[in-house]
Design goal:
Low-confidence stretches: none
Largest sheet: 8 strands, mixed
CATH topology of the largest domain: Rossmann fold
Structural class: alpha/beta
Number of domains: 3
Distance between the termini: 61 Å
CATH superfamily of the largest domain: Vaccinia Virus protein VP39
């Protein structure tokens, strides 16, 4: 059945995983790189129990929602899957995604969902990118000569992994996600490596000198570069890093990591500081507009990827909280304490909880350097820390702000929040589906008052959502 072709099929909707949706009778078909309103012939490529997957092989009509993709890598690279859809339509489908999650998973029919807030920038909005070195380049049309041989670039690549293919990397020429000097740094690193005949990583046999390149930037103009090598060839490493520093005076902080493991996780490895400051800094104005606070961002620090939109998110979350100045606030999954420091001047005290010890160290340092004295940060998993004893010691929360990872909150965290019974819960989420699941677990005790979707990642299917929950009034 996988080679079957359906003709003249109208694309109906945009799916949450970046693929569009069509229907054949009751069968749902997911199709990539098409836009709602397109009329296409679909060739089936995969059959699952509850749905089908296909690809568009012929267009009969182009949707009015369609636009020309601006990136030459669109359709091959796994990112920016909605780049061929007009931005206003992207926002429509993101808003729809939030509404459907709240209704279908949260079982709340008439939730107030405010109009989605667009990103201030739809290009060059990311402050962090990670590239992979690979000797298994994904070949595209034009990469082979007439004789069938691979072009002069060989099989080496520095770019992004091809979706669902662990060993293939697309060599990126220009990426529209991160502003200069990001592209220039990547291209120069690749050029140097090729000229020096340095070996690019081979994930199939776990060999190769060069593994990864990470670039972090801030609105204050700081640039951090982190190289990941497989082996500790000190002479070769130092020559490489010195070359890059000589080429780019913009680099204010440089690290490297030696990763000889078979996986790419580096947060458990030492970051070796090679040049400049040990951190880059970002600044924001606090919620009460009293002062500017500065955050130190280190190699492993979590910081919202779209800086300008992050400030909007923090402000909206604080508005939902409705501070009067005398509240005890728990900030769960607090990272380096950005929200805690942002709201500290508007409340009595903030208790931050974070599972990554280095992030807690950063949060404490950030509070200290900004003269913030009413925050306390604790390292540990929220489901283990939020005991009745902890709450009794730190004070019962009037408001809880929670910003968990995509998987949402552990069920024990939900139970702990319900036992603490704060007046308000402000739930920030990058995954409306798991957020809606957690809200459903709390709806016996809390009413969902309103939601504020935000677009943090233009041209992708991802959407951020802030939900305000208020404790129900007891009649007993």
């Amino acid at each position: 059945m996988t080679d079957k072709i359906f003709e003249n099929i109208t694309i109906l909707d945009a799916g949450s995983e970046g693929k569009a949706i069509a229907k054949i009778g009751e069968l749902v078909i997911f199709v990539p790189f098409v836009v709602p309103g397109d009329v296409v012939d679909i060739q089936l490529v995969r059959k699952k129990k509850s749905y089908l997957e296909g690809k568009a092989i012929r267009f009969h009509k182009y949707s009015e929602k369609r636009q020309e993709a601006f990136c030459e890598h669109f359709g091959t690279c796994g990112g920016c899957r909605w780049q061929n859809m007009k931005y206003e339509d992207q926002l429509f489908y993101k808003q729809k995604q939030v509404k459907e999650a709240i209704q279908r998973i949260g079982k709340i029919e008439n939730a107030k969902i405010l109009p989605i807030l667009p990103s201030p920038e739809s290009m060059y909005y990311r402050n962090k990118l990670e590239y992979s070195f690979s000797n298994h380049r994904w070949l595209i049309p034009g990469d082979r000569t007439e004789s069938g041989r691979v072009d002069e670039n060989g099989m080496n690549a520095l770019g992004f992994h091809i979706p669902l293919l662990f060993d293939k990397v697309l060599d990126i020429k220009h990426c529209y996600l991160q502003a200069d000097p990001s592209n220039a740094i990547r291209l120069e690193a690749r050029k140097y490596a090729m000229e020096r005949n340095l070996s690019f990583y081979d994930v199939r046999i776990w060999k190769g000198f060069l593994r990864n390149l990470l670039i972090r930037t801030t609105m204050t103009g700081k640039v951090m570069v982190i190289f990941v090598f497989r082996t500790d060839d000190k002479e070769e490493i130092e020559q490489f890093l010195d070359y890059m520093l000589a080429k780019f005076s913009e680099i204010t902080s440089m690290y490297y990591v030696i990763n000889g493991k078979k996986n790419d996780v580096i947060t458990d490895l030492p970051f070796i500081h090679y040049h400049g400051n040990p951190y880059i800094n970002e600044k924001i104005i606090t919620f009460n507009n009293e002062k500017e606070v500065e955050f130190h961002i280190r190699p492993a620090s979590f910081f919202q990827t779209n800086t300008k939109q992050a400030f909007t998110l923090y402000r909206k979350a604080a508005e939902f909280a409705g501070f009067t100045g005398n509240e005890t606030v728990y900030d769960l999954y607090c990272g380096i304490g950005t929200i805690s420091s942002f709201i500290a001047g508007s409340v009595k005290k903030v208790i931050g909880i974070e599972s990554v010890p280095s992030a807690v160290d950063d949060a404490r340092e950030n509070a200290q350097q900004n003269g913030i004295t009413n925050t306390s940060f604790f390292s540990g998993e929220a489901e283990k820390l939020l005991t009745p004893e902890f709450i009794e010691q730190q004070g019962n929360p009037d408001i809880i702000i929670t910003d968990p990872p995509r998987a949402g909150m552990h069920e024990k965290v939900v139970k702990a929040i319900l036992n603490a019974a704060p007046d308000r819960i402000v739930y920030v989420s990058c995954n409306p589906a798991t957020q809606a699941r957690d809200i459903a677990l709390m709806k016996e005790q809390y009413d969902l008052i309103e939601c504020q979707p935000l677009d943090m990642f233009p041209h992708t299917q991802h959407v951020e959502n802030i939900a305000l929950l208020v404790k129900k009034i007891s009649l007993t």
